[in-house]
Structures are given as structure tokens and as C-alpha cells.
Write a structure and sequence with these properties.
Radius of gyration: 24 Å
CATH architecture of the largest domain: Alpha-Beta Barrel
Strand order of the largest sheet: 1-2-3-4-5-6-7
Number of strands: 7
Number of helices: 12
CATH superfamily of the largest domain: EAL domain
Oligomer: single chain
Length: about 325
């Protein structure tokens, strides 16, 4: 059964971050405050959920953590918990240095940070060396997770469009087929029927992997135009399984499902329902549209090719030429 690897990754990070904070504060921090810090960090780190008010990523986190902390809770002893909040933010600064800093002097900065940690907590009873080791082990574990998501038999390729940060994404087959099969025969098998539907599951998983890597690298603007097996609109269970892979608002906004206008006309009710649920669609204009073009406003993008009458779509600012 397909699963949401993006959410799985973020949920794992939330779990270990909470463990780190409880360790650095000797479990004295209020649980709600701890959850708040973790949520602000991961929402900003992976979903770019907060408007940047500071140039430095962690400075931005501190701004929103302290702002939310001071305003959110009325029944929690803020004075008592504030030192634990500060300790937690220092810890997040260290983690961000390990994961996000690619400058040449990184190793020196890491050593200096760790030395400061050891000096601060040497008489506190907190096993700071063990915490540092655990943080580094978990970073390697997350890196291995990303590596394991890659497929030996398939990879993805990206094609630029005429709009910045928007790419078409395709599934490439790396399985060596016997020479007795022609390219035409292979393409016919791969691009139709049950095999095509199953290949699309792989494509969606690998595209989410690309978006996860983008997010880790703080490239939040990338969007991918992706194929869609319309035959699944008549197979509810398989459709649910496919969409479960991208069942996340962040992913729905960045994985743009391509559908031909003729297919949309045939499955209009099902497509409109998915659009209402937040899934993004791009319509490929493959036939002449009679009457008003107003109905096209439900689509995130309108895809035109060299045969399209482009003057007719001049009123739209979401046109992409493919």
C-alpha cells in the first residue's frame, strides 16, 4: 500500500526533536511548550510556513517560537519555562548548523558550538556527549532514508517549462529489455493498462521524494507537472491509493496533475471533486473549446502546445507552453 513519505519523514523528525528537547531540558519543559517549538521548527523547515522576518533561518524560528510562546499560553508558568525555551532554541541552532550550513568553515563552527555545549552542561547531569552523538546518528539515518527511497529500476527526469521553477517530470525506465522487443512494443506496454497505472505509483512516490529533497534544501518554489492515469477515475481503491501518496496540502500545491481537456470533459464530476479537495490540476488543451473559457479558471495552469490558438488564452496569466 502506498504511503506519504513526506509526512513520514517530517513525523520522524518531530519525534526525535521532541526527544532532544526533553534531554536538553532534563524533561522539565512543559509538554505543550515543547510541542509548540517542534511544530514551529518543522513547519518552517519543511513547509516554509512562516513569512521570513529575519535573514537567518534560526533567527526566524526564534522570532516565531517566542512570539507564539508569549502569546499562546495563559495558564503556563512562562517565567519558569522560558529558560527551557532558550535552551531548546540553542539546540535547534546547533541542529540547523549540522544540517543546513554548507560553508567552508562549517567544521570549525560545529566544533566551537559543541565545546560551548559541553562547558554549559558539564555539571548539569545532562549527557551532552550522548545527545550530540544521537543527533548526528539521526541525521545519517534520515540521509539513508532518502537514499533508500530511490529505485534501482526507475528514475525521474525533469524538463524545464517557460515558467520559472515549474517542471514537467517523467518516469524513466532503467530496466534492460530483451532486444527482441521493439521500442514501439515496449512503449505500448509501459504506457497503457495496469502496468501504466502501477508505473504512475512509482512516479508519484519518486516525485514526492524530489519535493522532500527540495524542502530539505530549502527550495520551496519548485513545482512539478505530473502525468495522471485517468483510468483510475473508474477504480476508486487504486485512485485512493495513488492520491494517498500526495495527501498533504504542501504536496497538493506542488504536484500539478496533468489532464487533457477531452478527459476532463469525460470525467468532469470526479475531477471537480478532486479540485475541491485541494488537488491541483493543469489542463492540456487538446481540442477546441466551444463557448466561454470561464470554466478553465478551476485549473492551476493551462497547458498549450504549438497547435493551440494562443491568442484565445491571452486573458489568462497561468498559461504554460509545453
Amino acid at each position: 500500500m502506498a504511503h506519504n513519505i513526506f509526512r513520514e519523514y517530517v513525523d520522524y523528525d518531530k519525534k526525535v526533536l521532541k526527544e532532544y528537547i526533553n534531554t536538553i531540558t532534563a524533561k522539565k519543559i512543559n509538554n505543550k511548550v515543547c510541542n509548540l517549538i517542534v511544530k514551529v521548527y518543522t513547519d518552517s523547515r519543511y513547509y516554509n510556513a512562516f513569512e521570513p522576518v529575519k535573514k537567518n533561518f534560526v533567527d526566524n524560528i526564534e522570532y516565531y517560537v517566542l512570539g507564539n510562546y508569549l502569546n499562546k499560553y495563559t495558564k503556563i508558568d512562562k517565567r519558569k519555562n522560558l529558560p527551557f525555551v532558550i535552551d531548546s532554541l540553542i539546540l535547534l541552532r546547533y541542529i540547523s548548523l549540522l544540517e543546513m550550513d554548507n560553508k567552508k568553515n562549517k567544521e570549525k563552527k560545529v566544533s566551537k558550538f559543541e565545546e560551548g555545549f559541553k562547558n554549559k552542561y558539564q555539571n548539569s547531569g545532562i549527557l551532552i556527549n550522548e545527545l550530540i552523538r544521537k543527533i548526528k546518528d539521526n541525521i545519517r539515518k534520515k540521509e539513508r532514508y532518502i537514499e533508500k527511497l530511490a529505485s534501482e529500476d526507475f528514475s525521474v527526469s525533469k524538463k524545464n517549462t517557460d515558467v520559472k521553477n515549474i517542471f514537467e517530470i517523467f518516469l524513466d525506465n532503467t530496466v534492460k529489455m530483451p532486444d527482441i522487443y521493439s521500442d514501439i512494443a515496449i512503449n505500448r506496454v509501459y504506457n497503457s493498462g495496469l502496468i501504466y497505472e502501477d508505473r504512475m505509483l512509482v512516479l508519484y512516490l519518486l516525485t514526492v521524494r524530489e519535493l522532500l529533497i527540495d524542502s530539505i534544501n530549502q527550495k520551496y518554489d519548485n513545482k512539478y507537472l505530473i502525468e495522471f492515469p485517468v483510468s483510475l477515475l473508474e477504480k476508486r481503491n487504486k485512485l485512493v491509493n495513488l492520491l494517498r501518496i500526495i495527501e498533504d496540502d504542501y504536496l497538493k500545491e506542488r504536484m500539478i496533475i496533468k489532464i487533457r481537456y477531452s478527459e476532463y470533459n469525460k470525467y468532469k464530476e470526479q475531477c471537480d471533486k478532486l479540485i475541491h479537495e485541494g488537488y491541483s490540476f493543469a489542463v492540456i488543451i487538446d481540442e477546441k473549446i466551444k463557448g466561454s473559457l470561464t470554466l478553465l479558471k478551476v485549473f492551476t495552469y493551462i497547458l498549450l502546445n504549438e497547435k493551440s490558438d494562443k491568442t484565445r488564452f491571452s486573458e489568462f496569466d497561468n498559461v504554460i507552453n509545453i
